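Q: We require from you a single protein entry containing the residue sequence and its fold in token form, and nothing else.
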Amino acid sequence: MQSSDKDDEKKTKDPGDDLPDGLKDFFKKLGGVSIPIPGMNAAAGPADPVEEDESNEEILDRIFDFHYTPREIKAHLDRFVIRQDEAKKALSIAVCDHYNHAKYLRGVEKENGKLPQGVEFQKQNVMVVGPTGVGKTYLIKHIAELMGVPFVKADATKFSETGYVGGDVDDLVRDLVTQANGDVQLAEYGIIYIDEIDKLASRASSGGRDVSGRGVQTTLLKLMEETEVSVRNPMDMRSQMQAMMEMQRGGKKQKGTVNTRHILFIVSGAFSGLEKIVESRTRSSRMGFQADITPSLLDGEVFKQVTTQDFIDYGFEAEFIGRLPVRVICEKLTAGDFVKIMQESEGSLLRQYEREFEAYGINASFHESAIQRIAQLAAKENTGARALMTVTERLLRDFKYELPGTSVTDLKIDADLIDNAEEEVLRYRNMARMVDIERTEKKAVTFSREFHDEHGVSIRFDKAALSALAELSVESGQSVLQICRKTFQDYQHGLKLVQKNTGVNEFVLPERAVTEPD
């Protein structure tokens, strides 16, 4: 009987009981509150088994109820991004082909219980070339939102500058699982977008970056085709501890790896200097005075002449560049494009500024002349559409600071305001002060009436005193009546004494009465 009790005790014993106290504390600190340590919280009872989210299958069914055409996807992108028609077409076609193929495989697998044999499909991973601020990220973000798939964005510099190689790049896939709320199957149909991919080019001139850039390229090319990535980072002790605890909890076990077969990879970069490689190659057949020694910018015409070898000469491995068969360019934006972005895009910056002023009770209206002027100034910044925020914030900063809390309710933003911002701020400030003084005078008359009815003494304020009351009201956030009642609550004693001795029936209060009431 005693032996049986001991056996039962062994069966129910928490494996954490054998851990030294110091190790228990270490694991607890390592995992924080998110990792339950065996033996550390026995009163809480056993953990509930992990239940599968029933809606995940519905989400997948919606993804694979794919019915979009490339034209429909481009029309969706046209709502948010101005120009870049070739990039929109290429991305739309790549997305349609990618998910139509995944839909086909899923349908066959559901029907036959296994994947079809001999069906080959090369993923249409995409490389987008173009300067900063032309809408590359915006395009891909809205494609992912339209599809309803998990989306992860990362900068290649995260891997090159810090020297991350090998498994750390796999964290991009693990981030997809996080975006899919832990659903590995859903993550396997997500989109990974890597910006500044040109920073991974391992050219001789790039010095110490060669090794890390080449190492990241090698790891990425495996991900871009098909490989299995562990859901848990083998180099992360916290992640491994979480995996161990989940195994001890029991319940349905989650899939431990992510297959990248159906993950669409899109990369982008400015590729500064690529145009020189193209020019050098195309000039080699020209001789003498026909040779053009001034390289062109990397625009659409030059990009049409870019070959795979040019990218290899730029510093990419042939295997890596081969995993990116779809290549498009986003053109540099002009002032005219900026006008369209502000007027036609659903994410227009002007709507944002109108809402921000509206929060302060100010109706801000952008006139055509202001839009044209902002576009011209933004074009000089050479940072793409991001320059619109830079220019607009600089021009309207003082108006946002000065006008909220005043009586100004309308702000007309035109070319005159843009060109003479300092003078316009001063004009609106004076306008606000004049209107405030008018309101202050009305409130001061109300207080004077109250003062006379209660104490039998007549008072009024001169212009300087009214101006001081208006400014004090803005600074303190109190109404003029509140300030007067508090400031002059004891004035009747002195004024009555003066009235008795001099016979004066009305007193005019100067500015000093407001600023130095004592």
Notes: Residues 9-16, 29-54, 204-209 have pLDDT under 50 and may be disordered.
